[in-house]
Design a protein that fits this description.
The protein has nine helices and three strands. By secondary structure, the chain is mostly helical. It folds into two domains: 21-87, Orthogonal Bundle (Helix Hairpins); 98-198, minor pseudopilin epsh fold (3-Layer(bab) Sandwich), CATH 3.55.40. The structure holds manganese (III) ion (MN3). It is an enzyme of class 1 (oxidoreductase).
Amino acid sequence: MSFALPSLPYAYNALEPFIDEQTMHLHHDKHHQTYIDKLNAAIAGKTNLESMSVEDLLKNIATIPEEIRTAVRNHGGGHSNHSIFWTILAPTGQSPSETIKNEVTKVFGSWDGFVQAFNTAAINQFGSGWAWLTKKDGKLEVKGYANQDSPYIDGATPILGIDVWEHAYYLKYQNRRPEYISAFWNVINWAEVEKRWNA
Ligand code: MN3
């Protein structure tokens, strides 16, 4: 068994004008596929690993044979992060539920406080990486992650995340990462976020 690229749950142009069609094609068809190909190559022939989910590979990263641990961390992380990312995006028009707003307010003081904490983590992530809202031991946290490091390797469950690698925004936004981050808030699949929240 090997990992395969999940289809996008919407059309490549469905997130326009916030995330452009060409970026979605390259990001999904090329970048995500490459993480999968390299993850499959790393675990090829290791039947105990081939039967594990990508989440379990990441949660158990310390037990992965040392010679492929970095590859699994990077490419397994890339596969997991992107698989989640596609599902937490959706055509514009959704709003967070009152439940999400209330939970977030308890932790971050206000909705704006949460948005600001998330945006700051995304803007300040040096170089390539992600910002994630995660749940760890039942507690919500916003944090930047370098490269393709997955919250799972941290013992945290990823809930809402933004890819701030340049490949995620450079065609449309060039060096204007903050503009891409504000656009992101228009295309969040809040129903899916809530599902991950309650899982
Ligand atoms: Mn990416």
